[in-house]
Amino acid sequence: MMKNFRVRKFLMLAALLVALPLAALAAGPDRAAESLSQAVQLQTISFQDPAQVDKAAFLAFHDFLAKRYPLVHQHLKKEVVNGLGLLYTWEGSDPKAKPIILCAHQDVVPIAPGTTQDWTYPPFSGKIADGFIWGRGTMDDKGSLIAILEAVESLLAEGYRPTRTIYLASGQDEEVGGEQGAVKIAALLASRGVKAEYVLDEGGMVLDGKILGIKKPLAAVGIAEKGYLSVELKVKTAGGHSSTPPAHTAIGILAAAIVKLEAHPFPARLTGVTNQTFVALKPELSGSLRFAITSRKLLGGIIKKMLAKNDATNAMIRTTTAATIIGAGTKENVLPQEARAVVNFRLLPGDSVEEVIARIKRVIADPRVTVTPLGVPQEPSPITDVNSAGYGLVKRTIADLFPEAVPMPLLVLGGTDSRFYSDVSDCILRFMPMRVTEEDERRAHGTNERISLDNFQEMVKFYAKVIRNSE
Ligand SMILES: [Zn+2]
User: Fold this and answer.
1) What's the gap in Å between 107 CA and the centre of ligand 1?
2) Catalytic residue of the set 140, 173, 174, 197
3) Residue 21's closest CA among 129, 210, 156?
4) Which of 116, 273, 328, 444 is the most exposed place for a label (fewest CB within 10 A)?
5) Is residue 79 among the annotated active site residues?
6) 359-371, pLDDT tens digit by residue?
């Protein structure tokens, strides 16, 4: 009897499961967290040296996505771009409506040598514990990629069809410049004449307002990003024996050049994006800071000095200078014939690569030091209009999901894949619905990268909502 009852119950349950639409199976917070956990375990690591990249790990990641998101792979057109880039097209019902593009990259940075044992849980375990999903990529940027796919899978399960065409674009090499991924995907879209209402990529986040004495969180939407330039400084001398040295060896000449660059930082500017940040924040600021911002024409100098004291805010008001590599000398009693250094600059919108190089030469003012740009310098991005429809849509979605947060435009200090999409859209927005404190920000690219289960749920909801709000 008992046994029969059990069998019947089992059959009923099985029939029910078969009858259930995939929707019910697809949904649920545990499922999304489990998806991210599994995504982290596939080690899609970018290395500066392309030969080190484990292509098989990326292909395994693509297989994982195909299995984990059956509806996405059934209803969206999937294209593999340049070997490992992914472009999904979700055809909208109105071919005349401008499409939108959601970006999130597949690759992650390596674990710094000697730090694996510092992690609470192994970096590629995807461990779900203590209310968090742990591991490399949870914050940057698999959290975003998986949240987007979870959102689309659940919308498809509900039978949702967008009005606008939605592209999901995922490069494989953002962490080493995006030349193989985002550059090629953006070029493909441009070649098809795609003009998007907006592109949404990583960049700004939901920040703790405490740093500015604001109780509310700040939803920072990146509307521009800084440019990138590395220059090599080189000094060549005759060399010789160190017993009869000249007044300055190659090392001394090079060192003097670096000292000059550090002594002459690029001038601070309280204009452009950072000015817009303060305009947005003004109602939330209190006391002296608010007064200073209101009277910034008068107090600009004081504000600039205040901002310059903190490395992060200093980087928002000027083109920064950072000597990052130096090398010279082989033996203690031999004069070096050559000394070389690399200095990295991040350009404020308004500055150009050409102007920065000219200023470097002017400041060093020493013909013995040659100045040569390295690699492919990046000009600062254009600035997205905060009055654009796209910015409005993202701002509205922020208000829906993070009603307590203050939205503000922000200058993104690092680089993102989105900068390559300027031919495809005038409205490039850099925002990830992730809540971070100052401490959390160090976890991305660092040790103990993680995202809370609650916040990851919010991320999934955000992307579903931004798609619905964009109708
Ligand atoms: Zn990233």
Assistant:
1) 8
2) 174
3) 156
4) 116
5) no
6) 999 999 999 999 9
